[in-house]
């Protein structure tokens, strides 16, 4: 299961409210790239795919495709807003190594 902190839920809610089109929820996915080999992707979705795992996080629905779910299971997503910057922070127990930026990871040692 993937969890979003209250800060993350509030941030996604603000992005949904500011969207130009109707939004059903937030897609979290894993794609190739980044300095560690894999990277997190976030985007607002207007509908879910049939094969998605749908996670109800209060006022936000999270959609995760079947290829990404094994690498994200157990992950927590927070939203940090500080003087140094703001953005989503991922705590993923499946990541064996991560880069300094925190958005790239690998599941192999």
What count of domains describes the coordinates?
1
Q: Which residues form runs of ≥5 with pLDDT under 50?
A: none
Q: What is CATH's topology name?
A: Hypothetical Protein Aq_1857, Chain: A
Strand content: 35-45%
CATH superfamily: HesB-like domain
Helix content estimate:
10-25%
- Supply the CATH class: Mainly Beta
The CATH architecture would be Sandwich
Counted by DSSP, the helix tally is: 2
What is the first-to-last residue Cα distance? 23 Å
Kindly report the average pLDDT value.
87
H/E topology pattern: EHEEEEHEEEE
Write the layout of secondary structure elements.
Layout: E1 3-4, H1 6-17, E2 25-32, E3 38-45, E4 53-57, E5 60-64, H2 69-72, E6 76-82, E7 85-91, E8 97-98, E9 104-106
Parallel strand pairs: 1-6, 2-5
Antiparallel strand pairs: 2-3, 3-9, 4-5, 6-7, 8-9
What does this structure look like?
- Strand 2 and strand 3 (38-45) form a beta hairpin.
- The longest helix has 12 residues, at 6-17.
- The two termini are 23 Å apart.
- The chain has one domain: Sandwich (Hypothetical Protein Aq_1857, Chain: A).
- By secondary structure, it is mainly beta.
- The strands form two sheets. It has a six-stranded mixed sheet with strand order 4-5-2-3-9-8.
- It is globular.
- It has helices at residues 6-17, 69-72; strands at 3-4, 25-32, 38-45, 53-57, 60-64, 76-82, 85-91, 97-98, 104-106.
- Helices cover 15% and strands 43% of the residues.
- The chain is built from two helices and nine strands, in the order E-H-E-E-E-E-H-E-E-E-E.
